């Protein structure tokens, strides 16, 4: 995991973008990953939030047999993850004059749900996507509100022997 975070940090730094902040889940793995990535992005502010913690965002459709959290988990986690979406995924302020770039370090369930919501796909389909650990998903929100997914779970910058998924 640490090697994957190093590679992800190197890849983000190589993009030459001026990142405004890294917003990360308060869970240990995400916090540690953020520390490793941020070494490659000096001066980028880090913000920890419980909203991005891993969880069960909404009951998946179609259902899966290998993962069945208690129904109450969907209500608790789902409300929190939806709050993360509403809090962090939005158009830039009308007064903003330059593009802004934010990094979110969190968990596959959260990322997949946010991607579905941002693209206006049925959010129940979140579990139909698979993400590798340390991958980069690039979501663009244009000033007019249009959303585009540039990459989903990119790990092409990692050697094949470093690619894993949970």
UniProtKB/TrEMBL annotation:
It catalyses: O-phospho-L-seryl-[protein] + H2O = L-seryl-[protein] + phosphate; O-phospho-L-threonyl-[protein] + H2O = L-threonyl-[protein] + phosphate. One of its GO terms (cellular component) is mitochondrial outer membrane. It comes from the Eukaryota. Transmembrane segments: none annotated. InterPro entries: His_Pase_superF_clade-1 (IPR013078), His_PPase_superfam (IPR029033), Mito_Ser/Thr_phosphatase (IPR051021). It is found in: Mitochondrion outer membrane. Keywords: Hydrolase, Membrane, Mitochondrion, Mitochondrion outer membrane, Necrosis. One of its GO terms (molecular function) is protein serine/threonine phosphatase activity. Belongs to the phosphoglycerate mutase family. BPG-dependent PGAM subfamily. This is Serine/threonine-protein phosphatase PGAM5, mitochondrial. The gene is Pgam5.
């Amino acid at each position: 995991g640490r090697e994957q975070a190093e590679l992800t940090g190197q890849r983000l730094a190589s993009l030459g973008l001026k990142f405004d902040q890294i917003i990360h889940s308060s869970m240990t793995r995400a916090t540690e990953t953020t520390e490793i990535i941020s070494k490659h992005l000096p001066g980028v502010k880090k913000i920890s939030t419980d909203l991005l913690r891993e969880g069960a965002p909404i009951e998946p459709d179609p259902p899966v047999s290998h993962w069945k959290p208690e129904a109450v988990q969907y209500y608790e986690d789902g409300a929190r993850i939806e709050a993360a979406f509403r809090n962090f995924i939005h158009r830039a302020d009308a007064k903003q004059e330059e593009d802004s770039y934010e990094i979110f370090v969190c968990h596959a369930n959260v990322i997949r749900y946010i991607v579905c919501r941002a693209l206006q796909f049925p959010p129940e389909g979140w579990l139909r996507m698979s993400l590798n650990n340390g991958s980069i998903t690039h979501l663009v929100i244009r000033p007019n509100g249009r959303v585009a997914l540039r990459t989903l779970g990119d790990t092409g910058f990692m050697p094949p022997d470093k690619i894993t998924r949970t």
